[in-house]
Amino acid sequence: MSMNRPGDVTRLLEQRYPKLQQTLPFVRLAELPTNLHHARCLGDRLGIGRLLIKRDDQCASSYAGNKIRKLEYLLGGALEDKCDAVLTFGAVGSNHALATAVHARAVGLDCYAVLIHQVMTPNLQRTLRYHALLGTKLLLASGYEDTKTQCRRALNNHPSGSERVAVITWGGAEWLGGVGFVNAAYELSDQVKQAGISPPDHIYLPSGSMGTFATLTLGLRAVGMAARVTGVLVVPQRTFPQQFVDLFGATNRELHARDESFPLFEDPLQGVEYREEFFGDGYGCATPEAEQAIDLMKKYENMQLETTYSGKALAALVADAERGRLKNSTVLFWNTYNSRPYPPELDSVSPGDLPTGFSKYFD
Question: Is the pTM of this model over 0.85?
């Protein structure tokens, strides 16, 4: 069952704080609000009082997932700065890099993606073919330090000059992108009130670059929703709590500076939990717990997840439910996956259309 208001009521944060709308760059990419799905079958199976799923996997018709809310502001900033291209980073199969490429092209921007190696995952080859179809300018880096070298090289060689390229950090984890998830908290609060249900006691989501985790938490504080937010580690860099605190604080200060009525908060870690035990052997490596959780979601809600991000976050929720931790609670799972199908013409894209170095992923 889906609980959603009719109409496209978006940018609720800026409606509440009008000065923000005058100072924040923005371009419409998402179809909001996303559905708030009551997962009765899976909730009953897990013994949860009420299980809700926020369907950000459906937030855009072309390519969805949690990155789109961030890109509305980040690509909006690139357009406002008169850029003609963006550059971002990720692993070879990065959803963030692909989402950036898809939506950059849609608003008339070229896209550079500096990528590092990762293990094979089910969609990795199709992701690379999608980049080739889009014309993404892919650069393969030998490691994290080399991404800086590749970035400088791309900027220096950009035909219209480096100042025309907007650099977007890993995962879009910067304050401007984070505004999208502060707004998402207002959206969630509005939906809960309209549905006449109690707000979530617990929220689960995957945490990589910390951007979604930190700034959604900020938004929940702003709307007065006292949910315990559980971020589940999905990348090898364990940057909690410092990066979380930095992103929470930077976004909070920027919003307050643009509209002084937006409150400043102390203790960013209040009501926050960070879980590392579901990471497994590495980034992109499936775990038995994630695969079991994905099977449960498919069986009981006919909803597809994946093993790199969303499956590991759901595995934490399932484990807590099985321990009885979530009994009689309202629990929300934030679905950050892209469930939109890839274009059918991908099968006609040749690996030879990719830059040298990427062919090894097709051996």
Answer: yes
